[in-house]
Design goal:
Elements: E1 15-17, E2 23-24, H1 26-34, H2 42-51, E3 53-54, E4 64-68, H3 77-88, E5 92-97, H4 100-116, E6 125-128, E7 135-138, E8 144-149, E9 162-165, H5 173-179, E10 190-195, H6 206-215, E11 222-226, H7 239-245, H8 255-264, H9 267-273, H10 289-293, E12 305-315, E13 321-330, E14 335-344, H11 350-358, E15 361-367, H12 372-381, H13 393-409, E16 412-413, H14 418-424, E17 427-432, E18 437-442, H15 450-463
Helix pairs in contact: 1-3, 2-3, 13-15
Organism: Ileibacterium valens
Protein name: Terminase
Length: about 475
Amino acid sequence: MAADKKRIGRQTPTKSYVLEYQRSKYQEAISYYEKSGQSVLEWQRSLLRDIMAINTEHEWTHMTIGYSVPRRNGKTEAVYMRELWGLFKGEHIIHTAHRTSTSHSSWEKLKRLLEKSGLVEGTDFRSIKAKGSESLEIFETEGVIHYRTRTGSGGLGEGFDLLVVDEAQEYTGDQQSALRYTISSSMNPQIIMCGTPPTAVSKGTIFPKYRETCLSGNPEDSMWAEWSIEKMAEDRSDLDLWYETNPSLGLIINERSVRGELSDTEETDFNIQRLGLWIQYNQSSAICAADWDALTIDRDNMPAFKGRLFAGIKYGKDNKNVALSIAVKTTDQRIYIESLDCREIAKGNPWLIDFLLNADVEKIVIDGANGQSLLTEEMKDSGIKKKPILPKVAEIIEANSAFTQGIASKSICHSGQPSLRQVATNCDKRSIGTNGGFGYKSQIDEFDIALLDSAILSYWACATTKETRKQRICY
């Protein structure tokens, strides 16, 4: 009886956008690569075929390429094949990465490929090892590749035929502005961006925007490929999902390795980095100063308020501080928010109780497991009859989403408090829950995100409460 066929990952992208072409130079690149003793996986071969497609004028069919593959599948090998070909054809190449360690590792890999192909350093090629500014040059062809860590000015004043953007999920707009013109003088330029979907801490905006453009079917001279799932996996241990999104599973990575990641990796992170999930919200954006400042109103010209106050109280996760903010509706259909204070948890809750006893509050929202129960009991003991809202995860996600939309629609207003502005304009988005939800976290340790969170809770309570209309009786 024949042995069962070994299961391997899907060899074709789950999503792609590729222009029609008749010819490709990929086979020549593969031959250079295989001289080093390396083997090419089928999915890498197919990807390289599309990357190196040419038109009738022998120009690259795809001037810009983007592709996303989950980690440890060998996604950069197709880039190495393309770079190796470029060196032997006399191209000038710049390989960029987000981290210095990543660009240095790529330099080491290509240097080994040259040596395994029979080339001798000093005789056939030159190697510069200076970390952060490495390079390789083949004497016979004058092909050269430079390795750089990306900055807002890196590459300016230099000219190249091929620009490689490794760790493309971290590729920012200012970096693109500095690098995009480095290939403009080439007669046949090409850009390759490769990476994984952005995580909650990723800063890049170019990669997801390029993906969206390609999958809409609009761009010229461009291609895109990805291995991904459509939505958050309900069962991360589903083998079918592993094989659908990891083309090298069963070839260079195995089920046991992936299974080991289940306990070490947070659920959302596993979905992004192992299953290729693209979170739909823009993770790279925080609340920018311009958007926040546009909501500022003059304290000497405050809008008229209507209705009662809504209080948001947030106990910080670090168990240090608790913050209080209020929200109230205005007669011009906006919601005014203001942070009242942020104090050490160790000093107790009397100041919160005092406020709640004396203010005209319609709803009270309290978040933070390290303080909710105690404050609720103290409210009862103090004679506060109003039952607080202790939001669930889904409601926290809803509150953050509503707040983000409120900023965009300018339905929020505030008085420009320096403390609240400081936190709001120095925050990143973070993943919450299992369905693509998000919250905020501070970029700077000294700024307590609890202040912003309390404002978000008060806004949410205010925005989701319908106004009570007086009953009219007509005779």
